[in-house]
Amino acid sequence: MATEQEQLLAIRNRIDAIDRQILDLISQRARCAQDVARVKQAFGGAKDAVFYRPEREAQVLRRVMDDNPGPLSSEEVGRLFREIMSACLALERPLRIAFLGPEGTFTQAAAFKHFGHSAITVPLRAIDEVFREVESGVVDYGVVPVENSTEGVVNHTLDMFLLSSLNICGEVQLRIHHHLCGFVDDVKAITRIYSHQQSLAQCREWLDLNLPHVPRVPVASNAEAARIALNEPGSACITGQGAIDIYQLPILAGNIEDQPDNTTRFLIIGQQPIPPSGDDRTTLLVSSYNRPGSLQALLAPLAEHGLTMTRIESRPSRKGMWDYVFFIDFDGHCEEPLVATALSELKQEASLFRILGSYPKGVL
Amino acid sequence: MATEQEQLLAIRNRIDAIDRQILDLISQRARCAQDVARVKQAFGGAKDAVFYRPEREAQVLRRVMDDNPGPLSSEEVGRLFREIMSACLALERPLRIAFLGPEGTFTQAAAFKHFGHSAITVPLRAIDEVFREVESGVVDYGVVPVENSTEGVVNHTLDMFLLSSLNICGEVQLRIHHHLCGFVDDVKAITRIYSHQQSLAQCREWLDLNLPHVPRVPVASNAEAARIALNEPGSACITGQGAIDIYQLPILAGNIEDQPDNTTRFLIIGQQPIPPSGDDRTTLLVSSYNRPGSLQALLAPLAEHGLTMTRIESRPSRKGMWDYVFFIDFDGHCEEPLVATALSELKQEASLFRILGSYPKGVL
């Protein structure tokens, strides 16, 4: 039998051969991206050519994730292909992305998750600045938060759509789960709970119900809370999977966040309408006439045509022309015949009607 | 001749075929990584098996970057392979990395650059906490800054090596260049210069020499400075390539940072010694006997054996046993015969001698 070194060497040689093929294929793929650019320029002229196609990227990601034979997780495979596409796209011109800063926030993480690390990102200080930079064409796209479980709906983002003609071109979701962890035999034995202030707030109801008399101690980060729980007898922490993996903390109670779907959702805003990808979401901005039953009448066509509404938010219109405006999300793309029919019926009942965008559902 | 749509469809079909092959190869590579783990466990037992091999990763990266046929840049190709290796390695167990926090700092960027995004990172509040977590084995590696052009040498990191037995397992460099930009016809026409406080400080000498009487206005970020320069006549900004690409600002003077090698350098610290990768650096911690000419005598063997010293830093020893200790970097690996000979000679002249690590030079 071969020695350990011989066996390892044989595997490493196999890996080297695979790497040569991967390098060759990635380079071929990049040349195809250049061919796409050449065709588009030949027919449309460089100025009009749109190289970034979110619906096409969503399709590629879904296919590789569906076809993934393992052993890598589909999420890892999707992430790798996102980076490969990002690098190929940047050959023409890196995408310029504005996001609600500062650097290091979740919004920047969302921007990289959606566009890959070959994009150039620029942090801006306010949501309206992100809209303005996209409108003026200084950047290609913007990334803004639209819902998060600490602040609820980010109203400022919704309000901007009343003033802006930009489209929604995509969405990104970052999931955040909280777990109660520590080296105690029983939840009842916990004497103190450490966590970041925001995490404590996000688990308030669960704590009030289950551990109402245990002091909650806010600390600088969930990682620090985990380290305290490791060292201080009787203490527990609320933290995420990352710190749990690192500190190998036993989970005493999982997913204790008050919102079961504790997700921060971001929108990609841009100037271009996005063709169907096969699994899309549409966001409407509508207002009903101010008469009894008008909101029900407005929504009826969606239900009648079997379209699944996933969210509705109302906002004061601030325009005087309508009392309230509604932001409605539903599954489907406005170019699909069924959706088009439903929307034309809905439009009859609306005093204000705008399709903010039909865009691929977040894949990763 | 085929229409635009037909031509694009043909290219997209080619890309889809390439993607299927890439997916297959990446999955094969991941299975090889599992084979490596199986062999190591069969021979060494799971507990002792070290799956992360920095010297091997450096070799893989160098080879794909050397072999890169284009059109992607070698840096992009290296980055993609870093992520592929990171994902394959995480199949066994994701690497746990502590870094000097908070989140979103350059040190976190360095951690991801070195370990890829499949690693789990945890921010800690102080350099000694990073050392402690690595020493206790709670995390696999730590990432700490060792030099940056604003603060100079990060003395606290050097001092930690006097107390710690950890090795240097690698290095990461982040290059930072500053350019003076704006829409003015001549540098002499500039009326105000905007930039982040730190960037203004990093270009102070150049500004004192070339534009001594122009007011310097610190703003929240270099991106904001770029936006002001875009809009305010007569103004200029100091910013990096990212903001220049986004705002398409003309460069009035490039690389104006006072330190020509304006690089922040980070060390990877860990428990394991790293075998040679073929292009390595060694860091020594030494002290000379307190007599005339002793430092020269200490350094002589390096020169005599033709080893290139790249850096030397002195620090008060704080131990009473030696007045000063020296941190010396030179090219080569302590297992190479020539280096081993030079070091055995150097050791004769030293009152304190410790090899902090021989490790691959930063590849990306």
From TrEMBL, chains A, B:
The UniProt record lists the keyword Lyase: yes
Primary location group: cytoplasm
Pathway: Metabolic intermediate biosynthesis; prephenate biosynthesis; prephenate from chorismate: step 1/1; Amino-acid biosynthesis; L-phenylalanine biosynthesis; phenylpyruvate from prephenate: step 1/1
Catalytic activity field: chorismate = prephenate; prephenate + H(+) = 3-phenylpyruvate + CO2 + H2O
Pfam families attached to this UniProt entry: ACT (PF01842), CM_2 (PF01817), PDT (PF00800)
Annotated positions for site Essential for prephenate dehydratase activity: 264
Domain Chorismate mutase stretches: 2-96
Residue intervals passing through the bilayer: none
Gene Ontology cellular component terms for the protein in this record: cytoplasm
Chain's role: Catalyzes the Claisen rearrangement of chorismate to prephenate and the decarboxylation/dehydration of prephenate to phenylpyruvate.
Protein name: Bifunctional chorismate mutase/prephenate dehydratase
Species assigned in the record: Plasticicumulans lactativorans
Organism classification: Bacteria, Pseudomonadati, Pseudomonadota, Gammaproteobacteria, Candidatus Competibacteraceae
